[in-house]
Structures are given as C-alpha cells and as structure tokens.
Specification:
Layout (H helix, E strand, L loop, with lengths): L3 E2 L2 H21 L5 E7 L3 H17 L2 E7 L5 H13 L5 E4 L9 H7 L11 H8 L8 H12 L8 E5 L6 H10 L3 E5 L6 H5 L4 E4 L17 E4 L3 E2 L5 E2 L4 H5 L4 E2 L6 H24 L1
Helix pairs in contact: 1-10, 2-10, 6-7, 6-10
Length: about 290
Amino acid sequence: MPANVIDGKALAQKLREDMTEEVSQLKAEGIMPHLTVIIVGDDPASKTYVNGKKKATHQTGISSDVIEMAASVSEHELLEKITELNQDKTVHGILVQLPLPEHINEQKVIQAISPDKDVDGFHPVSIGKMMTGQDTFLPCTPYGIITMLQSYNIQIEGKHAVVMGRSHIVGKPVGQLLLNEHATVTYCHSKTTNLTEFTGNADILITAVGKPNVIKQEHIKEGAVIIDVGINRLDDGTLTGDVDFPSAAEKASYITPVPKGVGPMTITMLLNNTIKAAKGLSSVAN
C-alpha cells in the first residue's frame, strides 16, 4: 500500500491562516510584529530564500524589511547594524541570511543577535534552552518537522528515530527535539559505517544530507515514516530530495515530498517565532 504523503504546503497554509488571525489581534492591541532580514552579498539562492520569507510575512500581516549589504562589508559594520537592530523596539525578530562571506565569522554574528530577537533559533542561549527542554525559539526546520509529525498524529514517543546529517541547522537540533519528545535517537553521518543497518531499523527516518536519491526502498523499514529535508537540483533543473520518492513511497507509511514538504514549514515556523517575539517584547515594553 503506497505511503500517505505529508503535505507540508497544505499544512503550512492552514497554520498561516491561524497566524493571520493572531497577527490581526496583536495589531488591534497596538502591536505590529516586525521581522528584519539582513542579506550580505548577492548569492542567488539566498536572495530566493529571502524573497520567500518576505512574501510569507506580508501574507500573514507581519511587517518586514530586508537590509542588503555588499559582500565586501566588514564584520564590524555588520555587527554594528545588528546592535542597532537589537536596540530598536519596533523590530521583534532579526534574521541574518546564511551563508556569509568567508571573512565574516558566522558564529560571532549569530551570537550578536539578542536572544529575545533570535527568530532563527541559532543563538547559544536558544540552543541551550532547547537542550534542557525550556521554552525558547526553536530552529525553524526542526520545529517544522516536529510540527508535521504531531499534526499527522504520528507517534514519536518510544520510536527509533534515525537522523542522517549532523548540521547545526537541521541534524543536531532535530535529533534533540525528537529526544525531547521521548524518541530513541541515532545520528548517522559521512563517517558512519554500515549505514543501511541504521536506516533499515528506523521507525522515523530524517534525511538532511544534500545528496539526490541516496535513500531507496531497500534502505528503509516497512512502514517507516520518512522526512526528506534534502533539496537537490538535478541537471534537468528539477528538484529532488535525498530520498528516491517513488520507490520509498511503496514501503513507507508516511513520506514528505520535495518540493512542498518540509520547505513551506520552515518559513511558517519563522513566522511563528516572529509572532512569539512580538508577544514577548510587548510584555517587556509595557
């Protein structure tokens, strides 16, 4: 029996409709949620992501602006701009689009953002709170994945979750969030030997390796839940994930497509974090 397809686009749309109502209510209370995005350089992929974020904020009524800085901007200038935004009470969320040019230290930039405005969920304070199960801004893609699983009533507690990838943005935090939901978590990466032994025993398999179609039907367990975070562009211009969708869908119980799977949820969780930040700042300001 073919797998149930987890429609991230439809779920994201439903959540954004609820957020639109929440934003309207905040505006009625005199609070205008505002997100500022900083983009350094002219990387086409980064510009596409930023435009998508800006469009999504406007659709839900969130105010946003984009600060474009030249690739030659100094680290000092960028940090000064972040300090200025930290002090601006009309700005609730700050996001610096990654990657940054090589002469700028990404960790230094991430740590410069106030934890109260860290809507990407990358600040060490946010990560530390996530690790210890405290309320905080969660990294958007992992947060979106957990929300998808919960929205489809997929059991996490007691299940064996295998995470392929160990990035700071997806792999590590999604494993922690699964652990927070009482899953048993295994991390796999480029140095893992006998990879199929792990993927073949996963109740929930999350792939975030950036290699097209590396996971096929023979690599997964019957009835597994497959969450494909990978976005890979093939020579013919089409997008595909890390999972060979047609073959894996014959064996899995649930599976996300690429595109229209995890991607729309990532931006939706950014909107959610921005609204959360606006609520937090409003209570401090008042």
